[in-house]
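Hi,

I'm pasting everything inline rather than attaching a file, because the server keeps stripping attachments. The sequence lines come first, and each chain or strand is labelled.
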Amino acid sequence: MTVTDQLSSRKAAAVARGVATRGIYAVRAENAELWDAEGRRYIDFAAGIAVNNTGHRHPRVMASVASQAEAFTHTCFHVAPYESYVALAERLNALTPGDFPKKTMLVTTGAEAVENAIKMARAFTGRSGVVSFSGAFHGRTLLGMALTGKVAPYKKGFGAMPPEIAHAPFPNDFHGVSEAAALEHLERLFASSVDPERVAAIIIEPVQGEGGFVIAPAGFLRALRDICDRYGIVLIADEVQAGMARTGRMFGFDHSGVVPDLVTMAKGLAGGFPLSAVTGRAEIVDAPDPGGVGGTYAGNPLAVAAAHAVLDVIADERLCDRAVEIGETIRARLNHIADQQGMECVGDVRGLGAMNAFELVTDRSGNAPDAPLTSAIVAEAERRGLILLSCGTRYNVIRLLPPLTIPMDQLAEALDILEASIEAALMARAA
Ligand code: PLZ
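And the predicted assembly:
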């Protein structure tokens, strides 16, 4: 029995079954590489699900956290506040889109940022309705899962869902949902079942993450902005997965020029330490009364110290530019693979900056998903030393999320492994 086998059986016996895991038990990680309990080395194209944009253990992040740990690790911001939280709020107010007074609150997870953004929108508008999108992922809390646009496994067995949450279709040309059709559906929803004047917020990911790396067209985001302005609805950009330089701009919304009212951030914000934020229009963020929002660990000093270093690294190492360069390299390779004979399984290659994916199908069309091939490629890549993540509402998308600090030779090595893994998975199927 290997160490990993032993750990797997202890996990199965001791840990909740609902907490799904892969078979790689981490022992050590450095920038874009990770070593497991067997001493095997992997290139990490998961980055902790888009968290380690600055790589594992970036030296500046580690130094900042170590120095904070020397001073204090926790006081609770509500009890004994600290300057670093205030300074991070100032930085996020300046970094997020929009030329108007902004304010920030810090929490711990992406789901919590989403929850608080909705609470602010409700308190501000005095309304309760929320519109999100099919295929969306907004977290695993009660409101987060209700907003999430996928039933299994996220909502199954966990009802009743909170009321007054409606889902509109997310535009996706490859799946046959045009931008115009998606907008028409939304207008129909407002005409038939949801009074737009009862809607507090529309929440949208600029690039759907768990839903399959589907990019929201700029025109669609502009139309949502118009609808929100027309009816007095708060527009929330969920930048938990797309934000923090991943797409080649600081935020996914920056590509469209559309300015949301509130932005939720997490994941890449603190380089592996749990921290999330809601930043946006001061009057909306200020709508809840004092004591109405917060939390024991919200804005933890160690995570805040990490976030300051992450923002410095994004600027100093020009990680937005690196994301563009990484993305161009990845898409060139994926398109090259897709163009080859026998690679009809690669149905769609898409991405924004370093947020890239390809969709696996049986016949190049958007409506013939190949989930078994998808998991076979992920498993094959893992055997060959590359950690990949799948996603997509139909489990047939492979997303590539390298740290934005990955050396170019490791990126090339990983893409070679990826190509060989697709070939091997196809061969195994043909055999
Ligand atoms: N909003 C856009 O992508 C988290 C989920 C992993 P938390 N995505 C990874 C899993 O299976 O639970 C996510 C996201 C967007 C919100 C969230 C939620 O962030 O930090 O996981 O709560």
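The mean pLDDT is 97.

If the labels don't parse on your end, tell me and I'll reformat.
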